[in-house]
Specification:
Elements: H1 3-15, H2 21-28, H3 40-47, H4 52-65, H5 69-81, H6 83-93, H7 97-105, H8 118-121, H9 125-132, H10 138-157, H11 163-188, H12 190-195, E1 196-202, H13 204-207, E2 217-225, H14 231-250, E3 261-262, E4 275-276, H15 278-287, H16 291-297, E5 301-305, H17 307-321, H18 330-338, H19 361-375, H20 387-396, H21 402-426, H22 437-446, H23 453-484, H24 496-505, H25 511-522, H26 527-544, H27 549-563, H28 569-575, H29 577-588, H30 592-598, H31 626-639, H32 643-670, H33 681-712, E6 718-724, H34 726-729, E7 739-747, H35 753-771, E8 782-783, E9 796-798, H36 799-808, H37 812-818, E10 822-826, H38 828-842, H39 850-866, H40 885-899, H41 911-920, H42 926-950, H43 961-970, H44 978-1000
Parallel strand pairs: 2-3, 2-4, 7-8, 7-9
Antiparallel strand pairs: 1-2, 1-5, 6-7, 6-10
Helix pairs in contact: 1-2, 2-4, 4-6, 4-7, 5-6, 6-10, 9-11, 10-11, 11-14, 15-17, 19-20, 19-23, 20-21, 21-23, 22-23, 23-24, 23-26, 24-25, 25-27, 26-27, 26-28, 26-29, 27-29, 28-29, 29-32, 30-32, 31-32, 31-33, 32-33, 33-35, 33-42, 37-38, 40-41, 40-44, 41-42, 42-43, 42-44
Amino acid sequence: MTPGRRSSTFTRLLRHGFTDATAAERLLDTPELAPVRDDPFLLEALGATADPDLALHGLVRLLEAQPAQPAHRELLDTLIAAKPLRDRLLGVLGASTALADHLARHPTDWQALVTYEHQDLHPGVTEFERGLSGATGAVDLRVAYRRCLLSIAARDVCGTTDVAETAAELADLATATLRAALAIAQAAAPEDAAACRLAVIGMGKCGGHELNYVSDVDVIFVAEAANGTDETKALKSATRLASALMRICSETTVEGSIWPVDANLRPEGRNGPLVRTLSSHLAYYQRWAKTWEFQALLKARPVAGDETLGQDYLDTLHPLVWQAADRDNFVADVQKMRRRVVDNIPAAEVDRELKLGPGGLRDVEFAVQLLQLVHGRTDPTLRSGTTLDALRALAAGGYVGREDAARLDEAYRFLRAMEHRIQLYRLRRTHLVPTAEEDLRRLGRSLGLRANPVTELNREWKRHSTGVRRLHEKLFYRPLLDAVAQLAPGEARLSPEAARERLVALGYADPAAALRHLEALASGVTRKAAIQRTLLPVLLGWFADSADPDAGLLNFRKVSDALGKTPWYLRLLRDEGAAAENLARVLSAGRLAPDLLMRAPEAVALLGEGDGAGAGAGTGLTARTRTALEQEILAAVSRAENAEQGVTAARGVRRRELFRTAAADIVASYGTENTPVQADQGALVDLVGGAVSDLTAATLAGTLRAVVRSGWGDTLPTKFAIIGMGRFGGHELGYGSDADVLFVHEPRDGVAEHEAAAAANKVVAEMRRLLQLPSADPPLLIDADLRPEGKSGPLVRTLKSYEAYYRRWSLVWESQALLRAEPFAGDADLGRRFVELIDPLRYPARGLTDEAVREIRRLKARMESERLPRGADPRLHTKLGPGGLSDVEWTVQLLQLRHAHEIPGLRTTRTRAALAAAHEAGLLSEEEAAILDEAWVLATRVRNAVMLVRGRAGDTFPTQPRELAAVGRYLGYGEGHAGDMLDAYGRTTRRARTVMEELFYNDGA
């Protein structure tokens, strides 16, 4: 071979798509191919395959395997002369090493690709049965099966059949194979065959006429006695035949296996009998079957065995499928099924999963099946077991938008084609997209992507999977909008009854009201209505994921009515995906956040990136610092004309920031598409407690400035400080908490004490009045009952008065209360000196006397018995119940009173920080600290959840089921798991109570 010729051949090979032109050149020079090595049609045909190198290698192996020279010559002559054979054979060799191996073992099977009759283009069960007819055992059946599979693959890779036709042919071949396997089993056991009538029901993709190249073949067996045989004996015979059929198809032989036969979709799964009578099947489905089992029956069809019995099975059970949507637990089951998918996929494989991953095949199949269950009971045209046929019927009936259906059809076909070609390569069951460059190149070329196969494949795959993810939710909801909107003449739409059925199936309790809201939002030809029609399909899905979809939709309508004319509102929701999902979560999570938002709907801008109306007040859902809040509030107060206007401005900021905090809490607790659920529950408690406490401090500071400025100008006659107490002092305020405070003042030089006291009392009275004035903003209640002498003592005292009282009259409970004291507003120096005054009381140098300890224990016992509300279940009371907030806090505070003088870390107003310090100091074990912290965090979360859900404070779980479910969703429990939530709360608090009793009542503590 001259160098020039080699260079020319080498270049031609590269031009035709070979990646290893040197090896290809060597193969073309082998004696087997010498007669045709320069044939232009051969090289062109090789270049048209998915993998020219693989095809050439397979062809050489096939030629080498020919039994004699005449057979070798016949193959070569036919290959060159007959383009259909050339394209089919080389197409298979370039796409499948497994079928190339088969041809090498059975070198005359290539002749199965020669015929080009009409029935060969579109064979059915009859043709495949003819192809398998010679098989008398498991090995023969495998060889014949592969021969038939060879012709299916040839039509597939050459484009003679599309992906749906290929899947149908594979299902027909599976049907013929099951019949052949059953015949072999019956021939081996004629007595068993005579004793029973056995029918094989195809399920899953086999039943749906949409099988993969390599897949478990799902079946159910049903049998009846024959010829007067005893039923028990007949069932044993049928079971032996069914087991033999499964072995014939599944076991590995010298020719490998065909595919596993899976009977686990039968009643009771693998724990139930392999074969049942028809009456036994019916009894199970009538009494015990779950919703997913009726979903599985959508695809049932008789495939082998007794045809009459198979049809009887179908006629008996199919009507039950279309009653599934009437079941009491259908909505809950649907919601659970809709939340399924990637949980069990290894993290490293999620992005490569064609079937179960996000935007995968299962998303399309599940959506179609769910809509069939909902609407198929009244519309028989929807009852196809084939996904694409059912999708077309749903579109024709108006149950799915035509455009959405067309895009889903395109995506499903592409993803199934990818799945087929991946499996065809080695005939292995997999749904994972390969990672190797050569595999991706072959896969891309097999799908017709030739210019840059890997890049084009990844781009198309991503486009289709992203489209499926987006359309998956819209598929359910967009037709609901079409049902209430003005459509073009002739367009199909959901009937009112069908729309109602779908809303009920998706969790809406009042479908009539929901349809009215949709009509109000989406009807008309305005730009606003058009944007709403784009947004609502996705929003409705997010609402349906909550415990109260109806409230979410109603609240969205209210916000949209209030903000619909503003230019930024719909733009924010349309252009910022996070804003729309955040809003959906917030509006459907309970009453508090929507109530706060309705009072000033422009706060919806906080849910986005901050380019809307509220951007100047801080962006996003990140809590603002106390300094920033005080600056904003004090600036607003300084601009106000009087105290009332100033406090109104301060309360407006408080309302907005309460909404920001609540929204951040809800989003972190529920999670969104872009934000995972916050796993650290303690971090969420600290977020809320810190944000609400800082906001309360800033509001009090602004209110104090407004009152002083209105009555006295820049300077009050007395120095004045506000000391936070209780949860306020501990930075642990909840959404519904009052502000526990002490007021302290000190007359300025030259000011009489009575004048100073009068001014201080007037300030307090005015602050309380202004913060509780009826308005659109929630009131801030100031509670000063922890002051000396309680409600009987003066509201405000001088620093000297506090000093005199605490020196002479202080009780141990007051020392305990002062553990949480921290200055928050007013004169900073006066606040600091107040802290210096109380430190010896709350951190006593010698700890507590035995009598003081006994007094604290008596007070705790009395509080538990006297303050628990009548009729309340103490086990579920978050504050006073066993293992609740009081147990944990009193335990921690007792440790602080005893040891804080020697252990500086205990000198904190915060419960969790004190717990951590106590553990670090060795006062309690790591396990004890963790148990107490977990219980305190959980109880606090429950209180926050109750306030978010009900819109009013509460210390125990709601009794109304929907509210209880909403609390559960906030705490991470799915639909139907409220009982698990209550059980978990009980376990957590019981452990905490055990630890508390050991630490609190043990004199060695």
